[in-house]
Amino acid sequence: MAAPERGHEGHAGRLVPLAFGALGIVYGDIGTSPLYAFRESFEHADLSVTQANAYGVASVVFWALLAIICVKYLTLVMRADNHGEGGILALTALLLPRRGVPVGAKRVIIALGVFGTALLYGDGLITPAISVLSAVEGFEVATTAFEAWVIPVAVAILVVLFVVQKRGTETISRVFGPVMVAWFVVLGVLGLRQIFHDAGVLRAVSPTYAVAFFADEPGRAFVALGSIFLVVTGGEALYADMGHFGRRPIQLSWYALVLPALLFNYFGQAALLAGSAGEDVGNPFFRLAPSWAVVPLAILATMATVIASQALISGAFSLTAQAVRLDYLPRLDIRHTSPTHIGQIYVPLVNWALMIGCVGLVIGFRTSSNLAAAYGIAVTATMAITTLLFYRVVRDRWGWGHSKALAVTIPLFLVDLTFLAANVPKIPVGGWLPLAVGLGLVIQMTTWRRGRAIVAQVLQRGQHRTADVVADAAARGVSVVSGTAIYLFKDPELAPPALISNLRHNHVLHETTVVLTVVTAEVPHVAPDARVSVHATGGSVHQVVLTFGYMDAHDVVSELRRVRLDGVPLDVDGATFFLGRETVASIPEGEMSQWREELYMVLHRGAESAARFYQLPSQQVFEVGTQVEI
Question: Which residue from 35, 168, 266, 411 lies 20 to 30 Å from 101 (Cα-Cα)?
Answer without folding.
Answer: 411
